[in-house]
Amino acid sequence: MLHPRAADTPAGAAEEHAECPICFEPLNQHQVGVLVDDTGRRISQHLFNYQAACLWAEEHHETTRACPVTRARFSRVVRLPDLLSDPHHWFQMVDLDGDGKLSRREVVEVLKAQLPVDVGLLEAVAMDPQSEMWRRWDPDGSGFIDEHELLAPNGLIWYVQDVCRESGHSRAIPSIRDKKAEWFAFWDEDHSQSLEKEEIVRALVHTFQLGKDYVKLQSLKGTIDAIWPMFDADGSGSIEMCEFLGAEGLANTIIATMDFA
């Protein structure tokens, strides 16, 4: 059970252990929330258990809501995006001062909150100016990570993918019916904004758990083979996100065609 009033306790120890300053639950085991103002900008660097922060907000009138750590006024609680499925909005939300680049501390605090990793290892990245890991993420040596570096080979996003893979930390697959863009981004592992036919088939097999149903698996492959030329007009073998998301795009065609979607 969450106890919002626990935030009256100083937040230092909680943050040191990557716990929520409100409920003291490990942040990486739950959805992470941040506090924003009326414009959607974060009002402080602090991170919270999303549910606990919502309960905290509900206990206070909207005109008197204040961060339980800094007492800075905030308007609402929003979820911190997932780096792998939504890197652009993740970058924007982590970029606390809106300068288009991420500092070591901005990066490390969010990674501690979202990943099942050794907190001490990430603190070393933040504190050691010669950190080998940071040099891989910041190849130009500027001391900051821009959005291009975030997505670059061997960059930060690749590290996060490795951590999730090695820890067995699996993310829920977004609904292809209700969250088409998130579904596409989930399977666009190289962030190319496109998916090849084989990637689409693989994604659908996992989404609908067809790996053990040979008949439906073959039906799926046949369906994709039949409709693919309608969307891959240039014969490139891949589908762009806009071709997937359109009103008459591949996503809606798949949903309408496949009776198990």
- Kindly provide the radius of gyration, computed on alpha-carbon positions and rounded to a whole number of angstroms: 21 Å
Mean pLDDT: 84
Number of strands: 5
Principal-axis shape: globular
What does this structure look like?
The chain is mainly alpha-helical and 261 residues long. The protein starts with 11 loop residues before the first helix and ends with a helix. The strands form two sheets. It has a three-stranded antiparallel β-sheet, covered by helices on one side. Strands 4-5 form a two-stranded antiparallel sheet. Helices cover 44% and strands 7% of the residues.
Architecture blueprint of SSEs:
Blueprint: H1 12-16, E1 32-36, E2 48-49, H2 50-58, E3 76-79, H3 87-94, H4 104-114, H5 119-127, H6 132-137, H7 147-151, H8 156-167, H9 180-187, E4 194-196, H10 197-207, H11 214-231, E5 238-240, H12 241-245, H13 250-257
